[in-house]
Predict the 3D structure of the following.
Amino acid sequence: MAAFDPVVLFFVLGMAAGLARSELRLPPAIYEFVSLILLLSIGLKGGLQLATQPLGALLLDSLLVILMGLLLPLLAFPLLRAGGLPRADAASLSAHYGSVSVGTFAVALSYLLEVGLEHEPFLPLFVVLLEVPAIFVGIMLARGGSGRTRWGELSREVLLGKSVVLLLGGLFIGWIAGPAGLAGIDGLFFDLFKGVLAIFLLEMGLIASRHLDGALRHGPFLLAWGLLAPPVMAVIGLAFAALMGLSTGGAVLLATLAASASYIAAPAAIRSAVPEANPALSLTASLAITFPFNIFLGIPLYHWMANHWPGG
Amino acid sequence: MTMHVRKLLTVVTEAGLERRLVEDLRQLGARGWTITDARGQGHRGKRALDWEYEGNIRLEVVCEGSLAEQLANHFRQHYYQDYAMILFMQDVEVLRPEKF
């Protein structure tokens, strides 16, 4: 292992600046813009390569990925309840950890570039497929079959969220246009990918620094959860990757997706559907504990685990 | 110049509620409103606005006193328990009462 992608140093810079109460602040529009470019880049790149592949074989793998998205929150929930969390908070954390973080996925892509590992082109599609199911499972766990949930409005909110629209849109455009069609815009979306990721990580560091005191205030259980849940979930991701016969690079990406926790789609949906859950708890765990853990230690660890997977 | 008294209802709350509040305003019959981004600090913590789901909004509605009260009651019933929200009312004078 011990491979290291210097781009994560921008996260350290943001975190240090935030903790030192530096004047450094990025306007919200910048964060919006860089996350838009990341989402479109990931989608376009996937779409571009999908164009050269038969799509039929993808159906079974897609179903497996959705199954994994349903399974992760169902496994997390009883553990969180056993840890003494109230029902709503346990359900909220289950949804966050079952769902995925595109930022973490982008860092994993950058890591694979750094170490020179190839991966299957359909992984960006898996990001979309994994983002949504856990959120619905989490809401159902919180409700426990009772109460009213505005499913119609909620579905629209989740399925038409920024990341789903941009990832799917990018996949579709890349798939239709092909390499020749994208020749004019690949400078922005592909060549600048790492630079944009650096700015994104700088902002993530600033945001995470503001949640750090919460990570300590919520006690040892949340800290332990934020650090231990990801590697365990990564093992489940690797098992699914082995089931699908993914390459090492693909397995690292799927493990990273399983291990990552949502901090955009899930917080918004859970805030509106399960308002009694404490939003600070889930956001703190996912942003201030799990995100840094994954980008610094997790991804190289999942790479090592993929290399040592039995039969892999 | 004749001035007419109306109520100004101001609500400060989480940005994520904007769509639902606007829907409530429509249903309860408000004719117009103004929403601005806001930041500040209260007993539910600091609301920083530099990240889309942490921001606050300030919603202002000028309307008849009876509607302002109806809106305030509705918001209190539906959002006070679980969301960061404050609201207050004051008398304001307007030039064109038919607009409000």
About this structure: The two ends of chain A are 16 Å apart (CA to CA).
